[in-house]
Amino acid sequence: MDTTPRGYEQVDRERFVQEPPKQQHRTPFERDRARIVHSSALRRLGAKTQILGAGTGDFVRTRLTHTLEVAQVGRALGKTLGCDPDVVDAACLAHDLGHPPFGHNGEKALDAAARDIGGFEGNAQTLRIVSRLEPKSVHPETGESVGLNLTRAVLDAACKYPWTEDATPTRPDGSPTRKFGVYEDDLPVFRWLREGAQERAQSFEAQVMDLADDIAYSVHDMEDSVVHNTVSLGVLRDEGRAREIAAHARQWYGRGDEDALVEALRRLQREPTWMDDYDGSHRALAALKDMTSQCIGRFVGDVATATRAEFGDGPLTRHHARLVIPEATAQEILMLKGIAVHFLMAPRERKPAYRQQRERLTELVGALVELGDEALEPHFAAMHREAGDDAARTRVVIDQIASLTDKSAYDWHHRYVVRRRDQAVASSD
Known about the structure:
The chain is mostly helical. It has helices at about 30-35, 40-45, 65-80, 85-95, 105-115, 120-135, 150-155, 185-195, 205-230, 240-255, 260-270, 280-310, 325-350, 350-370, 380-385, 390-405, 405-429.
């Protein structure tokens, strides 16, 4: 019995390493989603930073809760457009697996520490995790890990930036994105999953995942700004403040027209559920949740309508269609992201603790490179011993540190940096 969902072919459900036949009560894409749900990498996201650090408060989103919200938005949009909901759901669940402790701040630190071996990028790390690091499947001939051994369709859908670092495109304003999806030593699986795809073109499901990510964090990071920082959205009625936020959005994301962004904000403010004032009451929190829910519905509905208008009915899958995002919708999403930048992300970067996070990770990389396999978790220690040169061993160290949660990163720094430093001082006295 063929369990390939409508709109997909046999090639889409192939795996990098062929597996023995299984009972046919689930599609290959349902199996992929289950493999990601049960992965240790997904569990760790519950203690990793989204925007505000894990542990900042009970309300604050972690990287895991953000991931679940992205999956909900993506699954709903994908189902509406006829691509397999499990392919989109799996891609959304996987999309942030490669993020290190301390979120994008930790990503900057590891990228600097790994410059000589190809850098660090969270999306490239995601591919590395699902195709190599996560323990699930091994190659029957070589015995090497092939990670979760996901299908071609799901791997491609999880590939947000389908290019190498040296092929990274620029932003609309000409600035570099510094975003890429694969390290050099993971190119074999990347080339396999991209067979038949146009160079640097996202699959349709990857486009859905990418938009779901944009929608989720634009809306929910704004919500966190209001609740955690008690931001009054009423200040956005001031033209000067609105333009400050538009400028911040353009500065951080390298796109958008200031006048168009301000007008996008005014459109959102005209919606009946928009709220200017938040007093922390149950009623206010419920109203805020309703506003964010309506924003999500508005964006998803507008994109689905525009995409169907261009590509018609029927399943839209893989590299046979593209997501159509109306310019007005893109500007509204970008302006919401600008609110989070203005009130949360930009002020955060000026705090000493933010700099200290990068310093701790940098020092930890140095300590683990020096200590070698004796300081690593068993499976990383085995990879370290099998590595053929110093660059490969350093990459294992980066893999180990990237896997840590925020708390674990602090603990490891204390154990391997602070304690060793104190012992060295004591022995010299």
